[in-house]
Every structure is written in C-alpha cells, then in structure tokens.
Amino acid sequence: xxxxxxxxxxEGGMERTIxxxxxxxxxxQDPYLHQPYSSHPSHALHPSAGPSATSTPTQARNAxxxxxxxxxxxxxxxxxxxxxxxxxxxxSHPCIVLRRQCQVHNTARWNHLTPxxxxxxxxxxxxxxxxxxxxxxxxxxxxxxxxxAASEAAIHEFTPLPKEVTRHSSLKKMAEHILLxxxxxxxxxxxxxxxxxxxxxxEIACERPGVFDCIVEGVKRLASFTSAxxxxxxxxxxxxxxxxxxxxxxxxxxxxxxxxxxxxxxxERLERKGPQDGERPEGxxxxxxxxxxxxxxxxxxxxxxxxxxxxxxxxxxYLQGTRTIIDNTDTGLEVVPIITRYDGVxxxxxTIITEEGFAGLYKGFGALVLQYGLHMAILKxxxxxxxxxxxxxxxGRTVQFDASHAVDPRYSRENYKGHDRPGxx
Length: 425
Hints:
The chain is mostly helical. The protein has helices at about 10-20, 40-45, 55-90, 95-105, 120-130, 140-160, 170-200, 215-225, 235-275, 275-280, 285-305, 310-320, 345-355, 365-395, and strands at about 325, 335.
C-alpha cells in the first residue's frame, strides 16, 4: 500500500490494521490494537506523535482540575497555619493568664481544678476591669517566643548543633538538637520571668507596662546573675537549671506524643482505605492537614498535664521578690500581694505540699482544661471546613486512569466510528 511521507506513523499503523483485518481479525478482538500505547512501533519511531503532542479534552480538563486542586490546597495550608497561630497565641491567652494567676496565688482557698469554678471569677474580673484585661502581657509573651526562636537560630548558625531533626536522624544528632534547645532556654530564662510578672499582675494596682519593659527587666535580672538581692528575689543561676529541665522535658514529651498520634492516624487511614489507596500521596485536605493539627494539640496537652506541678513551682520562684500584686482568683473582686520565702525548687515543692496539700500543685488546672477545650472546638470546626472544601473540590471531578495502560486514542474504535475506512464495516 502506498504511504504518504507526512503520515508515515499513522499510515503505517493503518496499513497493519487493515492487513490484519483482511486475515479475519476483528479490531475489537485484536490484542495488538489494545496493548499499551508505548509499545506501538509508530510511537517508537515517531516520539513527537506521543501523548505530549496529542492531548484529548478529557486530559486537558483533568490537568486544569489538578492545578485548581493544588491552588485550593495551598490556600488551605495557609489558612490552617493562621488558624493554628491564632488559636495558640491569641485565643488561648486569657486561659494562660488565669492559669498563671491561680498557680502563684499561694493563699487562695479555691484550687480551680475544674473550669466551672472559674466562671464567676472571670465574670467579676471582666465586670470590674475591662474586656481586654485577660489579654494583659500578650505582647511580652509573643516577644519571649520570638526571642527563643531567634536564640535557637543564632546558636545554629554559630555552632554545628542541628536546628531540626527527623525520625531518621541518629541518636547523636538528636542529642545535639536537644542541647540546642537547652541553650535556648538558658538565654530566655530572665526574660520569661519578666514576662510572667506582666502576665499575672493586676491592672488595677499596677501601671500598664511599656512595650520593651520585658526586655529591660530581663536584662536587669540578668545583670544580677549571682549577686545577692535586697529582697527575696532569687538569682538567675538558681532558675536556669529548673527552667532548662522543664523546657526540654516539655519539648521531648510533646514531640514524642505528636509522632505517636501521627503514626496512629496514618495506620487508621491505611486500614480504612487499604494499603494501595493509603500509600498514594494525594488525599483530601482533611487527610493532609487535620492529622498534624490533632497531633500537635494532643502532644502539648500531654506535656502540659504531666509537667503542671513543675510549672507551678517555677512560676512561684520567678515571681518571688518582685512585689507583684495579682487579682484575687477566689472572687475576682479585689487584689492580693504575693509574699513567699522559698529557697529553691525542692523547698518550694515541699512547702506547697505541707501548707496547701497535693492539690496545691494543680491550682488553676481548670484553666488548662478550658484552654484545650477551646483548642478542640477549633479543631472540630477545622475538620468541618476541610470536609466541605474537600467535597467542593471533588465535585465534578472525572475518573483518573493510568496512561501507561491506555489505548492510543488515534487507534481507538470511537475515532473511526461513522467513517468509511477500508476494512471497517
């Protein structure tokens, strides 16, 4: 059969098809026509005639939907990050203020182990002061967190200590990473103590602190590193070790719990979808972002619960000798001064057990429950939003197929339906 030079690949394939039709082989029963497209000789001889040069409307629509899905996922990731920051640093700050005030109030009659006993106190504080009174000290709190991040970055730049590790990292690298965290806590100890004062002091009896008062007071406290103080203010060197122990333990517990929760959620996903579906990198926005949010909140909750007594001891040591006046957490109607005489961590712990009982170590635990209750509510709302976005992005989506097992559309039966071609009837 004669062939045109401009249609070598196409006519060659058609010639073989017609010759096989003359032998009594119907196109629908011809295994040659229904083998993968990459094995066709015409494709091997003419790569330009492959799928990259020929695109069907379905493939173009699928590519556009994939790009649209990627854009939606990017905006969803940004939204998740912003919601997480807002929940952790802004929305939960009033609960942190209440928790710290309860922890340092050594003469309080109410331990506030549940959030229900806190509601009358919150109402009275809001009524007699201002709506934003429970957000006091938020500027210094964020400043200390930024200082901690900057300290770790600087240590990482000037030392070989790694800033980040993975589950595949060696034990030596993990130990070096924990050392970097410990050095960061050493640097921020005096500034954290100054920030605590701004967080718990009453706005009625104390002046509103300035923007950089936290930094100034931290430098002053750092300057008197070992010198004796005229008041019961403890020197910084007595606070560094318990601060580092608390910070490192909190980081390790939260990280391990987060990893375990992520592993559990991934296993449940594999069991629900099957191993082949679960191993695919693509998934709904719920499957991509929700597990990490749930794991982070669960890890922080476990660490805060286990280390709550140590946090109570540390906050009392930070506040000792600062002549701080706080809101009365029993009623929320007046203010009380904080006067303590602890010699260190052990003495503070034993004194609390002796004078206030074991429950004294958990004063303000109800505020922690309230804080993570808000976190769980936001997590539930985030899950609903993810489900809605996932359903919206999947609406109208066509079924995906593997191109390596698809028949070349030029040789499919539909392309010749209704045309008068030799050998086809």
